[in-house]
Task: inverse folding
């Protein structure tokens, strides 16, 4: 029997599940700015994204570009499954600002498998590079969507790279173990003699559990719709 | 009472769970404290990065050193930035782990409690059944729990109580049986004493009338009267013994050092029987006087207890007949009882009368030589001491009787 009181457990359960469940990647998808990007076919077998909207000016993106960490733009492309099945593709663009030299290093890795690197000295150059950026999203030789099919393009912006996250996780784990051993044996000699085998295994488990809670969560996302140009056919 | 027990259990379980939780959360908190860096620290480090760059411009000759320090600091700053970015995730993971640890602690403690309860359940059921049987008056209650905890101890106490009840019932039955025998003996003695006295007076008067008559007939009658009086004397002696059983006095209990008392008995009676040697043994392998354990005391009537020992020694001497033998007295003490074993090396009691050896008029002597009242009187005396007299063993190599005496004054009803 449902009544006013009966719904309370459901609310509590829902709240608990929401609290326990891992955070979903990214914030709310943002509305596209300054128009849509274009899809075009290059060399007859590569679906390329061009005419990139200037999302680098977006507050959530710009404030991460110059931190020294590698801002990662994860591209996902997907067509509707009405005709010929779903076609999925993707690419990754990384921008890292070198704090000492004060230059931008970019890497574009598309579905053609060829990383393209650039070094840019100013923010203006970076913006220009972004506008002219062409990102290979799909190798049409493997799976081609139907012509004029609607495709969705989504970019998740993560403020660091996987390698940087892994490094931080290792550092966090080591720091946690050092903190535990320091708390247990204040003597410097003891600390020096303390081998990993004598460390508290419980602290190691907790260290791993804490360190692995660091996730590559997107700070923001963008999504567009674009039509697949004619000529994209499966060989 | 039940609620109180449950409350105490819950409190103890809660405390145990909190202790376990506290132990684990300390490990977790140590591991987690490392990510608790305030934002001001990050801002300060970023300023330091700028400072290092300025310093490199100001001191170009030390640029390499500043670059190295810059790179090190930058790595730290980047890590802190990533931590800052993932702070919410870290915090949530920390809280989840705390909750999980708490739940594990509660489940573990509850599990242990439930496991203990499941183990104790059948034992408690057995104990409950044993107590129910005991309350119903059963004297053969067996719990069979050898545990060293409270339940095991209570089980053994229940069994001990059952044994005590069994012995008490046996004593009571013996007492009732002997009391009825005493009553019968008292009536018979009373019925016999009056005609005996009358007959004796008549025969004595007849003998007086014949006094001075020289005739042959008078002489014969005088002889007949003397003979009749002798028989009446024997009958009177028989009646007196009968009366002594019927009118056995109540013991006057006074606390005595029994070791000392036995030594006195030994000194007084060691030569009382021609064919019997007395031995006193309190420890295995040691015999003779002055070997009793000191300090074993019990409330006894010295004279009546002596009568019991004399009866037993009399029986042993009679059973030995023409050959010689010995009687050993062994005194030991338990928590509540004093045990005095009297062992002879005679031919033993015939098997067919062992079960009724304490009943009056049970004897192996020929008619006219013994009435079979000695053991019955001894048993009655010991029962009146709130103790007992038991036939411990009997075989062709000897017989052992056990005298049991309470160490403390019993409250007689």
Result:
């Amino acid at each position: 029997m449902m009544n006013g009181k009966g719904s309370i457990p459901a609310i509590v359960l829902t709240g608990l599940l929401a609290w326990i469940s891992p955070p979903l990647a990214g914030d709310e998808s943002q509305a596209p700015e300054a128009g849509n990007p274009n899809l075009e076919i290059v060399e007859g077998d590569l679906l390329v994204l061009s005419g990139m909207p200037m999302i680098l000016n977006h507050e959530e993106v710009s404030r991460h570009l110059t931190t020294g960490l590698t801002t990662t733009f994860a591209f996902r492309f997907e067509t509707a499954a009405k005709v010929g099945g779903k076609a999925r593709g993707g690419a990754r663009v990384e921008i890292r600002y070198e704090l000492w030299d004060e230059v931008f290093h970019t890497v574009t890795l598309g579905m053609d498998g060829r990383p393209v690197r650039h070094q840019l000295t100013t923010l203006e150059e970076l913006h220009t590079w972004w506008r002219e950026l062409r990102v290979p999203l799909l190798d049409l030789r493997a799976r081609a969507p139907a012509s004029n099919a609607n495709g969705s393009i989504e970019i998740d912006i993560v403020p660091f790279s996987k390698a940087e996250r892994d490094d931080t996780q290792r550092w966090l784990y080591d720091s946690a173990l050092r903190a535990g051993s320091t708390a247990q044996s204040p003597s410097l000699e003891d600390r020096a003699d303390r081998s990993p085998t004598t460390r508290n295994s419980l602290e190691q488990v907790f260290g791993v559990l804490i360190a692995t809670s660091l996730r590559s969560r997107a700070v923001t996302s963008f999504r567009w719709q674009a039509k697949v140009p004619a000529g994209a056919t499966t060989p | 009472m039940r609620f109180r027990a449950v409350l105490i259990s819950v409190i103890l379980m809660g405390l145990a769970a909190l202790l376990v939780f506290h132990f684990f959360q300390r490990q977790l908190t140590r591991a987690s404290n490392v990510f608790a860096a305030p934002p001001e620290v990050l801002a300060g480090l970023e300023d330091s990065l700028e400072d290092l760059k300025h310093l490199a411009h100001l001191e170009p000759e030390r640029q390499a050193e500043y670059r190295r320090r810059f790179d090190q600091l930058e790595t730290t700053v980047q890590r802190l930035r990533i931590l800052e970015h993932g702070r919410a995730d870290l915090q949530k993971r920390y809280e989840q782990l705390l909750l999980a640890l708490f739940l594990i602690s509660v489940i573990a403690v509850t599990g242990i409690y439930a496991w203990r309860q499941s183990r104790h359940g059948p034992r408690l059921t057995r104990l409950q059944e044993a107590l129910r049987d005991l309350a119903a008056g059963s004297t053969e209650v067996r719990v069979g729990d050898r545990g060293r905890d409270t339940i095991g101890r209570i089980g053994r106490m229940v069994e001990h109580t059952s044994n005590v009840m069994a012995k008490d019932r046996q004593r009571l039955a013996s007492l009732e049986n002997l009391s009825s025998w005493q009553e019968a003996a008292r009536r018979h003695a009373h019925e016999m004493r009056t005609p005996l006295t009358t007959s004796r007076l008549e025969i004595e008067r007849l003998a007086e009338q014949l006094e001075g008559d020289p005739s042959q007939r008078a002489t014969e009658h005088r002889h007949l009267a003397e003979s009749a009086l002798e028989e009446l004397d024997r009958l009177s002696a028989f009646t007196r013994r009968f009366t002594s059983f019927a009118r056995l006095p109540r013991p006057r209990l006074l606390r005595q050092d029994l070791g000392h008392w036995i030594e006195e008995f030994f000194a007084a009676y060691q030569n009382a029987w021609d064919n019997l040697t007395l031995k006193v043994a309190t420890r295995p392998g040691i015999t003779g006087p002055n070997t009793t354990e000191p300090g074993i005391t019990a409330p006894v009537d010295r004279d009546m207890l002596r009568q019991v020992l004399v009866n037993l020694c009399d029986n042993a001497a009679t059973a030995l007949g023409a050959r010689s033998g010995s009687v050993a007295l062994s005194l030991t003490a338990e928590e509540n009882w004093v045990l005095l074993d009297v062992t002879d090396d005679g031919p033993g009691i015939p098997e067919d009368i062992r079960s009724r050896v304490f009943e009056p008029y049970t004897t192996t002597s020929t008619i006219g030589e013994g009435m079979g009242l000695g053991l019955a009187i001894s048993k009655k005396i010991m029962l009146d001491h709130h103790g007992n007299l038991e036939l411990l063993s009997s075989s062709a190599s000897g017989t052992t009787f056990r005298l049991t005496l309470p160490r403390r004054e019993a409250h007689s009803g």
Summary: Strands of chain B lie at 254-257, 276-280, 297-300, 325-333, 337-344, 388-395, 398-406. The mean pLDDT of chain B is 84. The first strand of chain B starts at residue 254 and ends at 257. Residues 257 and 297 of chain B are 4 Å apart (CA to CA).
